[in-house]
Amino acid sequence: MKKASCPDDEKKRQLMVVNRASARRSAQRKRQYIENLERENAYLKEENNAMKHKLESCRKMFAAMLGKNTSSHSVINIPSEYIESTMADRL
C-alpha cells in the first residue's frame, strides 16, 4: 500500500515546491509594483510642487504687468473697467 501512496506523495511535494516558487515570484512582482508606484508618486509630487511654484511666479508677473498696463492706460484716459473686462475676456 505504501508503494501506491509514494507517487501521490511525490506529486504533492512537487506541487508544493511549484506553488512556493510561484508565490515567491508573485510576491516579488508585487514588491516591484509597489516600488514603482512609490517612485512615480515621489516624481509626481516633485513635479506638482514645481508647477505650483511656476504658477505662483506667473501670477505675480501677471499682476505686475496688469498694474503697469492699467497705469499706462489710465494716462491716456482709458477707463479701468474696460481694461479689466478686456483682460478677463482673454483669460
TrEMBL record:
<keyword id="KW-0805">Transcription regulation</keyword>
<protein>
    <recommendedName>
        <fullName>BZIP domain-containing protein</fullName>
    </recommendedName>
</protein>
<dbReference type="InterPro" id="IPR046347">
    <property type="entry name" value="bZIP_sf"/>
</dbReference>
<dbReference type="InterPro" id="IPR004827">
    <property type="entry name" value="bZIP"/>
</dbReference>
<dbReference type="GO" id="GO:0045893">
    <property type="term" value="P:positive regulation of DNA-templated transcription"/>
</dbReference>
<keyword id="KW-0238">DNA-binding</keyword>
<feature type="region of interest" description="Disordered">
    <location>
        <begin position="1"/>
        <end position="32"/>
    </location>
</feature>
<dbReference type="Pfam" id="PF00170">
    <property type="entry name" value="bZIP_1"/>
</dbReference>
<feature type="compositionally biased region" description="Basic and acidic residues">
    <location>
        <begin position="1"/>
        <end position="13"/>
    </location>
</feature>
<dbReference type="GO" id="GO:0000976">
    <property type="term" value="F:transcription cis-regulatory region binding"/>
</dbReference>
<dbReference type="GO" id="GO:0005634">
    <property type="term" value="C:nucleus"/>
</dbReference>
<keyword id="KW-0539">Nucleus</keyword>
<keyword id="KW-0804">Transcription</keyword>
<feature type="domain" description="BZIP">
    <location>
        <begin position="9"/>
        <end position="60"/>
    </location>
</feature>
<dbReference type="GO" id="GO:0003700">
    <property type="term" value="F:DNA-binding transcription factor activity"/>
</dbReference>
<feature type="compositionally biased region" description="Basic residues">
    <location>
        <begin position="22"/>
        <end position="31"/>
    </location>
</feature>
